[in-house]
Amino acid sequence: MAIFQSKRYRPSSADATLAARYRNALARHPFALFGLPFIATMVLGSFFLTPATALRYERHDMKVRQVTEDERLGIGKDKRRIDMKEEYYKLAAKDLDNWEQKRVKRLPGEHDGVL
Fold first, then answer.
1. CA dihedral sign of residues 57, 62, 65, 71
2. DSSP 8-class letter at 35
């Protein structure tokens, strides 16, 4: 019986192509030709995308700052001035000793709290 070779037949012209040379080199050095470019792409992409991300957050902060500045201009106009003595006398004028407890009406199907 004949024994077949385990290697596939490749013509000598196929070894001259760039893809064939890359395939042979990749078999010998897989990390250098596949892993290292992948990791380099991730690291360099991070450095290149950092300014774009920073710009996004800076624009968002500017919008928030503009709203707060506009609101700050209109906040104190309609505000009533509070006097502590006046508030004290308002509370003192109320009769806090005579009050009546009123039960809140329950919604239909709600537990009334009595066991």
1. negative
2. I
Task: Decide if 105 contacts 113 (C-beta within 8 A).
Answer: no
Buried b / exposed e across 50-69, counting CB within 10 Å, b at 16+?
eeeeeeeeeeeeeeeeeeee
Question: Does the pLDDT at position 33 exceed 90?
Answer: no
Q: What angle do CA 73, 75, 76 make, to 5 degrees?
A: 100
Pairwise CA distance, residues 48 & 57, whole Å: 16
The pTM assigned to this predicted structure is: 0.39
Domain map (residue ranges) of the chain: 17-74
Q: Give me the count of residues in the chain.
A: 115
Predicted confidence (pLDDT) at residue 61 exceeds the cutoff of 80 = yes
Tokens linked to 45: 């992409």
* Other beta carbons within 10 Å of 11: 7
